[in-house]
Write a structure and sequence with these properties.
The chain has 4 helices and 7 strands; from the N terminus they run E-H-H-E-E-E-H-E-H-E-E. It is of the alpha+beta class. The protein has a 7-stranded mixed β-sheet with strand order 1-2-3-4-5-7-6. The longest helix is centred in the N-terminal third of the chain and has 16 residues.
Amino acid sequence: MIFGVDKKCYGELIEVWEKSVRATHDFLSEKDIEDIKREIPMYFDAVEMHCTKNTEGRITGFIGTADRKIEMLFVDPEYFRKSLGKTLIKYAMENGDIDEVDVNEQNDKALKFYLHMGFEVISRDELDSMGNPFPILHMRVKKMV
């Protein structure tokens, strides 16, 4: 089941984000992670947020979307390979006309996941949106899954 998100969930979302980033973004330094972590609530405020929860009501994954684009998708590593990412993307596609996503090129698992979900790479930037040397792949849905 998919749930809406409000500001009182931000602490829990940040915990899920950090666990997920540490499991998948090995190209980021500790300083990079801490710098991004401080700014995450600002990003939450700029997107439409939805999440999944376990039977105890804890957030297990979340998606943030804006302007036809997945701006963030993070799943607690404890729940990797349990279709939560797929569930969140399908929800976003069915309820928000989503068809684009940006992925860090160094995040092989995310790239493979999005390719599996029907996205294809349409362009590449050498730097991320903050000007850091983390190449970004811009992807768009080529077919519905």
